[in-house]
Known about the structure:
By secondary structure, the protein is α+β, with helices and mostly antiparallel strands. It has 3 domains: 16-69 and 156-180, no CATH class; 83-145, Double Stranded RNA Binding Domain (2-Layer Sandwich); 181-203 and 213-332, no CATH class. Helix content is 48%, strand content 15%.
Amino acid sequence: MTTTLVRSEQDQEQFSIIEQVVITGDLAKLSSQQRVAYYNRVCESVGLNPFTSPFSYINLNGKLKLYVNKDATEQLRRLHGISITSLAGRVVDDLYIVTVTAQSRDGRIDQATGAVSIGGKKGEDKANAIMKAETKGKRRVTLSMAGLGWLDESEVDSIPGAQRVYVDTGTGEIIESSPKPAHRQIQQQSDPLAEVNFGMGESTAEEQPVQTNGHAPKAGQITDAQRGTLHALGAVLYNGDWDAKRHELVKAATKKRASSSNDLTQAEAQTLTVGLERKTRQAYEKLANELTSGAVIDPGLLVEIDVLHGVELANAYREMRRMSEAQGESVAA
């Protein structure tokens, strides 16, 4: 009897949360605990593992909503037995358009398109744009076949005024909104770490004493997940020099307030993570170009590096380095 009552109360609470979302369409109206419950309920309803963070948050037209990450579409393809059967690309004016055809295990067939602008692009930039169009198409057809009419990660950056919002999926706390710049040049100018030396050499900036008597911004301390992501990216980028390099980067991210990653706020950790991810992608692409141009590896082995983040990105670069080192040993032998 007691168990039945408890379950009934839990069900009523879940329905109340869903009702609020349906009426307002805004997840920001929910409490932190309600956001966690809603996130987990959505994952459960479509068969996704919430611990892989298949969804992220976006502020669209003043409302907080979920959008689908790369990991979600990969899980959905496995769950529904969705196979990509064909890719057909064409150029229309300045657009490269890919039509993707997919088939589910029960024989259903669906199509979707992915389109990007290639006007003025050449070489590697054009190649990356073409791969992005293919990625968009694959994800859109996957979501269509799975019956989810949600925004995909590859579409977020093309929406005017959209803002990615960082929410702790464990607590439901809204950490920070990150406005999407209208132009790459603006992004570079507003990047707090634009002048940080992410290379292996010493920073050219004059070293200033670390201020230990200041107060950290009230945005919450760095989480264990953020700390793990920073160390995963830093270790694969800088190897044995990471300990020394970490202090330099933390000083830059905190404007000399701190030198230990333990003293970072969540917002500062996110800013530093974005910089390390950018550096990791550049290193991956450079190594990938060297290996594919020399016919060392099949280009089909390359991953879609532009959609990977955090630990997944670090693992992808580590694997690329392993292949490079294996080739070096083979040549030496």
